[in-house]
Protein 1
Amino acid sequence: MRIIHSLDEMTETARGWLAGGPVGFIPTSGRLHAGHFSLVDAARKECEVTVVSIFGEKGKSHTPDQGPGLMYDLSRDVQLLDSLQVDVVFIPRPEDIYPPTFATYVIASGPVVERLECSLARDQARYVATVFTKLLQLIRPDIAYFGQKSAQKVALVRCLIHDLCIDTSLRVLPTVREGDGLAVSNANALLTPAERQAAPLLYRALLRAKALIEQGERRVSFLEQTMTDLLSSSPLLRLDYVTICDPSTFAELDRLPDLVPTRGSPGFLLAIAAHIGSVRLTDNIQFTRDGYWLM
């Protein structure tokens, strides 16, 4: 396994891939877990070369403590990636990605950067769009791998790939879940036993709405209220949002289409975010344009 820190070295390495087989890319901010491992496994099966990037949230350096209640060990991640037989681990230095002279940002617009997660952090969309543009240009992957849990980030990256004519395709895999349905996340370790017991309620609310949709319900307001009522049944849970929206633009929907693949239809996304104690959790499921549920 090759570890690269230098942007120039990454560029030179990527140039050598042009005549080879497909390159798979998994972007991460470290603290690797089972969700990341599923993406690595898919990339290794489908690509000649597998690259994993580790770049801290909002460009922070990888110091020992990089988040509330969670100690971060970069060497652990590197060892895990070595055991998974990843070909290249790219760990760029923040001062190289954002040097003092940096002045060119990628600014996305539209509902996808105005709603839900992006609305809660004003600079989040600019950060994601700029960093991913740089990573895709440096690594030059044929396929970038994401989990369904990152639905809004996927929509944003898909938009910049299309608009900036970047020669990369996206592969979105199902969310990796615990036995009770809770989406795998580093934040789960911060939950108390009682909070951990309440946390799968997010997924159960999504499944209840899914069942109603499959029974013929198409009213978005009714489906959103059904999910809200179920989530409100736990005193430990404080709801941030419940929404059903277009998975490409994140624009709100009034009524759902039929559950059949329709030319030009993007499908729809059911998404939830809530606080349980001091921990914020998100989850979603998507009915895709190809006519199946991505969960």
Note: Residues 14 and 139 are 6 Å apart (CA to CA).
Protein 2
Amino acid sequence: MKRHPGVKLISRDRAGEFARGARQGAPEALQTADRFHILRNLAETVERVLQRHRTALKQVHLMKTPASSPSVLLRHRRPECERKKQRARAVLVERYEAVQRLVKQGLSHRAIAHELHMHREAVIRSAQAESFPEKSERPVSPGILAPYEISLRTRFLEGERNGLGLFREIVARG
């Protein structure tokens, strides 16, 4: 680093030797942790907080019935997950239609399975189905925070972004 005096920012590992080397090699440079280590720090912090509250967490009872508010049971998927799911469904529909087309042409289940690189049982299921068999959505079950969701959303909209502070508010409410 001494050969490159223009270094202004160093993204480094958390080890002390790297910090010392960065201080000696580029004393004016700003040191920061790389993305991996930031996430690792976060994970370790979350683990410590959960470890401290493990007895309280063991006493939490999950709700057995859906909450009265329908917004609690909404499932929010990330857009890339939704696109991935739609692409997978499109592939399955295309495969179903191919099986139906080949059955109408008179091919055997074994021949269709060989041509489409499918298991023969899957070909038989697709051939016998009158329409594309949609996969049913898994039932949405309320999460551990469901009883507190309205309160948490309200506090979040009020500007409270401190997760530990929100956790303490929930604990204080029982």
Note: The chain has three domains: 9-52, 62-74+143-172, 79-128.
Protein 3
Amino acid sequence: MPIDGSRFRACPAVVLFTAALLCGSAASFAQNSDFNLAIHASDRGSAAEIGLPAYPGAALDKGTDKSSAADLGFAYGETHFRLVVAKYVTADSPERVLAFYRKPLSQYGDVLECNQGKPVGALSATHGGLTCSGQENGNATSTGNIDFSGHHDLRSGSPRRFRIVGIDESNSKSTRFALVYIELPKDKDQEGKSK
């Protein structure tokens, strides 16, 4: 399925960052009782944890990698990262799946439809700044680290905290789709500019 862990190019950086925190933290932990690092990883991601309803009649899609869900994250002080993915399969058409998720996604803001990395319709960015291409004024944004450009999807939220319903249209007999929630750490440079 095209929407899998290999599409999340930001994850290796997060893993390396987390490993560096863990390796470098042993001395800090002993010296500073205020040190607080929390890491979690499980294969129990679900539509509910993503904040969306399960599609009626859809089954979890284990695919070739034998996993249908993941919930990864860490928190270090004010720095938070979370990625929750749940993959499903249904006999319904991609259009029906996308239509079903429009309303639930709207509770998180504008719903942006993207096909092959380009906006569909008049909306090219949400009020929160989320785009299809991961580019804003020629610069890569947070979503630029996640490659959904080869797929049809709906997304809602901001570049730092968003949800995606991504459709895999490679199989004509069934519709495979993924529900994704991503929370990225705050960009200190952007915080300073907005103040």
Note: Helices lie at 10-31, 47-50, 94-106, 188-194.
Protein 4
Amino acid sequence: MECNNCWKEIERKPIVEEVYDTPGDNAPEEKYFCSEECKEEYLFGGDFAYFDCIGCKRRICEQNPAQGYFIQYRQAEDGYQICLRCYEEDILKNGCNKQKFIDGVVPGMFFSYGNPELSAAGYSEVPGFDCYFVNGKESRQKLCQTAIDLIESGYKVIVAYENLSTMGDEGYVTLYKKGDGDGKHSEAGD
């Protein structure tokens, strides 16, 4: 058996670490190491470092070639990382965070083509914001203010990224809402 880091033959009992290559993996993969140093270097020092998801408590690769090298987490509160699967589950349940919109950030994520996850969770497109082009301060403010208004009217909102630049500062998004808009302030969106 070889060490996953230095590729040397492991002469004694290996150090075994269970990891996930992608957030969508249901079964872990075992990685073998000859020493704690090799384990630490492999898991936390390389191009494909791992992180511990605060949601599902799994150790997941930050960027995996099988996923097109996309970052497989979002920053959560206090600098912790949450995997994309847990993040998706959270925003489908609670909607996007109102404070992000107040701060001028367009929170959301890429879903499957056509955004079937949103439809299945009871969300519908906001008129005028289907494949909405965000290309500067004015268009971003319009989207964010619309989302804030919907949240304050009792809706949950999600932004589905359709096509964004690599910097995330320009591209197409679709705004979705869920709820009855009863005018009651939604605490989940805070």
Note: Residues 95-189 form one domain.
